[in-house]
Design goal:
Layout (H helix, E strand, L loop, with lengths): L9 H14 L3 H13 L30 H6 L3
Helix pairs in contact: 1-2
């Protein structure tokens, strides 16, 4: 692991401190997460084996609306 030091403006420091406090994390953790979020691509790899490892739909059984109403099904309050 390498050590990186930098100076930040007072406003940036305040934002970093507030975010860390709000999330219950250290400022170092929040800064690392911000760097990763900015520098690492957030893309889906179309060649990921999960997309071809098994059939996702077998076309058997009754048709349902679960794919459309999944939020209501999963998070409905009784």
């Amino acid at each position: 692991m390498k050590l990186v030091q930098t100076a930040v403006a007072d406003d940036e420091y305040r934002l970093l401190r507030e975010r860390a406090s709000k999330e219950g994390k250290t400022m170092k953790q929040v800064a690392r997460e911000a760097l990763r979020a900015h520098l690492l691509p957030d893309r889906v790899n179309p060649n990921d084996p999960i997309f071809s490892a098994f059939p996702l739909i077998k076309r058997r059984g009754p048709r349902t609306t679960a794919s459309v109403e999944h939020d209501a099904i999963l998070y409905a309050h009784p």
